[in-house]
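Section 5.1 Outputs to date
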Amino acid sequence: MDWRATILLYGELLLALWLLWREGLLRDRGMLAAALTAVPLAFALRYCFLTYETLDFQDWIEVWIQSLRENGPWHGLGQEIWSCNYNVPYLYFLSLISVSQVKDVLLVKVVSIFFDVVLAWGAMKLTGILTEHSPGRKLTAFVLTLWLPTVILNGSLWGQCDSIYASFAVLAVYFALSDRPTLSVAAIALSVSFKLQGIFLLPVYFLFLVKGKIRLRHILVFPAVYILSILPAVFAGRGFWELLTLYLRNTSTIGEGLNYNSSSLYALVNFDALSPAGGERVGIVLAFFFCSGLYVWLTMHLKRLNDRALFGACVLFAVGVPFLLPHMHDRYFFLADTLTLVLAVAWPRMAAVPLAVSFGSLLGYHAYLKMRYLMPMRYGAAAMLLALVLVLVHTALTLDRPAPEEAAP
């Protein structure tokens, strides 16, 4: 193990503990002991995986880094990298990695682990909003996020970067519920700029808008931040329009498979009787009606659409949209894993929800990492469907309870 990578990992551990101290969660002896045990162990587990290289890393990420290294970190950003379908903000990190003497796989994973910490911090802050800043639950959310199996496997073993877009998405919800609309829209824009999967949460912004959490003028922040995120690559030589429409062009390369090791509807229901295009349309139409139905239902209860119900809507979109859409991959429930964990920390009776979602996610991870199925993916899809039903019931019960300002004196 390269000592420089080890130092960076220790720095991230200290950052995690500092964030807890700054939040005032380490003053109690019991909480201090729990944090000093659970957080370092989570990093020790990640340390064990750092040198492992998956085929994804060897065939894709390492190739992109090598291209940046051969062309120079700046000029490389100005050229379209063969086989790279990631947006350029992530390439900025790879560009910095390309000039380092540390082994590429170590730095790629160190970057992802840094955002694991940001994700845990966002989950902690969001939990605070939902639980009137309960110290014990905030610490629980932080620690359990670091210990989520998919969070550990995604960055430190697989070498993927889903914690980046997910951390910004979680912070976007936190900022919205804490009445900081500009930061919320900026955060969701950064989430989408790193990975298209950030759009799973975008539908909830209609509810934020009708509830007054954001105003129409705040929507302008989204394109401004997105454009700022691609400008360095534009200045390096990439075409502005090319980068602005990158995601639209990538939709033509998603393939005809309706499901790629995902615990989605397409693992639960057999669409073989339909053409690929017909099966695709079914999921898109169902996703449209799912989102539209939630809009109608929740706006009918606008006066009782409190922060807790809005968060329930966030969870519904994070689970429901990738469950219904076609062409979903094994890692596309990553955001749902985190938001359902926050849900269970805030309402312990909902503990079955993150268990079901994580089970479905892990079946996809197992399929890729072990190159075989632990069990048929339909079991994971059934677990996702169960989680959706439970969150729908929870959100309905939240709406049935008057908001504090409506309660009788």
